Amino acid sequence: MNVFRFMLQNHEQVLGLMLEHLWLVGISTLFGALIGVPLGIVIAHRPRLNKPVLASANIIQTIPSLALFGFLLPVPWLGERADRLAILALTLYALLPIIRSTYVGIRGVDRAVLEAGRGMGLTESQLLLQVELPLAMSVILSGVRVAIVISVGLATIAAAIGAGGLGEFIFRGLAMVDNRVILAGAIPAAVLALMADIVMGWLERRLRPQ
Amino acid sequence: MDATGPPPVIEFCDVSYCVNSTQVLSGLSLQVRSGETLVLLGRSGSGKTTTIKLINGLLSPTTGDVRVHGVPNGEGDVIRLRRSIGYVIQDVGLFPHFTVERNVGLVPKIEGWPEERIHARVQELLQMVGLGSEMAARYPHQLSGGQRQRVGVARALAADPEILLMDEPFGALDPLTRDELQREFLLLQRRLHKTVVFVTHDLREGLRLGSRIALIEAGRLVTVLTPQEFLQSADPWASAYVRAFGGGLEAAANRGLS
């Protein structure tokens, strides 16, 4: 196979781009979770906020990624470095699945359990940390899992604005009309997505309450 | 208040409760004495559960006062109040991700008891509600309905509250298990003398377990009677219940443990 020979010959570069790719995905998913989980908790407790928040996240999700990268490019501090911009865009895309799964997970906690907990004298924060979050954790993780898989794909486009990652090979290959180079970016990206999916799926099952 | 008796543990003073514009409770005045089992009897939607939730502050009255030990709810610390009241509900509401031991020991734990004391207390409580010590390590989904409710009762008793609120605790159980748990409740109550408010729509259960029965209809307190008085009452609502439940009620009112 030509592709694999090409990848072997350029293994250092493939590995470097893969790490860059992982970094883009990892850091933006982390930000997405840091923002999305609290937002999801808030809208689960205040149903009035649920529509505006989910609608906003939905709208972001509908912006084509290439367009979003383009929109953000002229923004002062952000546009200076392509990776900043890519991380912001990927974070925005991670929000919807994470907010939604947190909302669904928390709302799905048995009302009787909450009532018993509240009646026993748990404070709202004890209820959240000891009951709601542990019981919702596997559902929340399923959203994080979706966010990661989407992000691995989207991050390839970040190469278009020079943010690096495996998209570099894909865009280079497209320019050179060389399938080997395209695949040298696409195959590792697919492997990354699959691996992330497997690891997260395992975590999700481990944390699922009986 | 009774001129001669001790002050009531729980007191409703002209309490009304509305949701939106629906009147759920109107003008409820009621006293629960120390060590008695007051049964709230009424049909679904009559306001029994609302009444019980007003006691532990899960709901606040629209007008009027609910006092526990003379302190109106809303003036004291509601979390402290709830931790001093055991609460048992029909759906039990055990924490599915905690073992029986952690479920029962949760309030002692957040109250900062040392581990050994919690462990000893859990063992004592499990024995008290008729569960073997091997149950401590199980999860709620590994228990039968009756066992779950026993754990629910043990959990409510964990921090040794003086007051116990029970909202149709045995309503979802099969008749045999229900009978068993009612009998054990009576035995337990003989030993512990908690002040109990017990919600049910089952007159037979009310007659058997209650020292007094408060009959609630459409958000109003109709009457408060002892089981014996209830059977002989000329009150149209009370006699409607007696008729609906048919024969054998005297036995329920008298037999208690038998």
Measured by DSSP, the beta-strand proportion of chain B falls in 15-25%
User: Which consecutive residue ranges of chain A, at least 5 long each, have pLDDT under 50?
Assistant: none
Indicate the structural class of chain A.
Answer: mainly alpha
Total beta-strand segments of chain B: 10
Compute the average pLDDT of chain A: 92
Number of helices of chain A: 10
Shape of chain B: globular
Order of helices and strands of chain A: HHHHHHHHHH
What is the percentage of strand-forming residues of chain A? under 5%
Outline type of chain A: elongated
Assign a percent range to the helix content of chain A.
over 70%
The share of residues in helices of chain B is: 25-40%
Strand sequence of the main sheet of chain B, in spatial order? 6-7-8-3-9-10
Any overview of this molecule?
The complex is a heterodimer of chains A (210) and B (258). With 210 residues, chain A is an all-alpha fold. Chain A is built from ten helices and no strands. Chain B has helices at residues 48-55, 78-83, 100-104, 106-110, 115-128, 145-157, 175-192, 203-209, 227-232, 236-245, 249-255; strands spanning 10-19, 22-32, 37-41, 63-68, 71-72, 85-89, 163-167, 195-200, 212-217, 220-225. Chain B has a six-stranded mixed beta sheet, sandwiched between helices. A four-stranded antiparallel beta sheet of chain B has the order 2-1-4-5, covered by helices on one side. Chains A and B meet through helix 7 and helix 8 of A and helix 2, strand 6, helix 4 and helix 6 of B.
Tell me briefly what this model is.
The complex is a heterodimer of chains A (210) and B (258). By secondary structure, chain A is mainly alpha-helical. Chain A is built from 10 helices and no strands.
